[in-house]
Specification:
Layout (H helix, E strand, L loop, with lengths): L2 H30 L6 E13 L4 E6 L6 E2 L4 E6 L1 H26 L3 H33 L5 H30 L3 H26 L2 E3 L4 E6 L6 E2 L4 E18 L11 E6 L4 E12 L19 E8 L11 E4 L1
Length: 327
Amino acid sequence: MSATTQHRNILLAILGFITVVVLMGLIGFFALGRDPELIQGQVEVSEYRVSSKVPGRILEIRVKEGDFVKAGDTLAIIDAPEVRAKMKQAEGAEAGAAAMEQMAQNGARKEQVQGAFQMLQKAKAGLEIAEKSYNRVQRLYDEGVMSAQKRDEAFANYKAMQATVEAAQSQYDMAVNGARQEEKMAAQAQLNRAKGAVQEVNSYIGETVQLAQMDGEVSSIYPKVGELVGTGSPIMTISMMQDLWGSFNVREDQLKGMQVGDEVTAYVPAFDKEVKLKVYYMKDQGSYAVWKATKANGQFDLKTFEVKARPLETIEGLRPGMSLIIR
């Protein structure tokens, strides 16, 4: 066999192999078609964190992870001796303010009122004597047997006793009437302030017993019994299992006209079944990290949207973190 014939045979074999490969590819493309594009998401759940307004030491934790709790159930107890000490101080201040307010309202004691009354009677008696003495001296002065100096001294004593009676009367009236209206108002304000301090400390004492705010499942517990927690430190997380939804990151060329209110079908691998979801939230991610650059081939950049959808019916056993597939 000549070299030319051998080379021609090799070339024909190569061309035949390439033809077979191309034909097989075309047959596979048209016969099988392309795999459908998948959008994968996962189940999310609403949560709230349990935390305290006061620092303290964890005295007791009454639930375990995985427990279902109802609103009002006791979750944890915190030991806060500083708050109890503040309560004693606030109660003492309230008692003192209440006593001052009562004293302002009641006025002087009866012994003080009686003493002021006696001083008034004494001053009146002195005025009566001074008046008689002055009148007697005045008659003697008119008859010419008493000097003007003596008459002036008697008159001055008479006026002094009048002023003494007026002062004693004022003291007696003040003892009977009690404190001024402004003093009573100030005492009442101090009492209200002390009561407010007691109420404030009471609210802090209430924070030492942590209660469930809503029904849910205990998903995480952070501190151990005996550990210290600060103000606002999370103690545990409660998942509200009645509020589940699916969360998807969808490139905008995959939206295919999807809008809020649309219904979509998602496959749940954990149950090997499909569920109906209703879209209630759509928002672009707003970050270049989730853009798909296509300008290199003459097209445009594609952004990614966060899409949330809720199941149309309750699905028993659906848990946060389970996958959801939209074809």
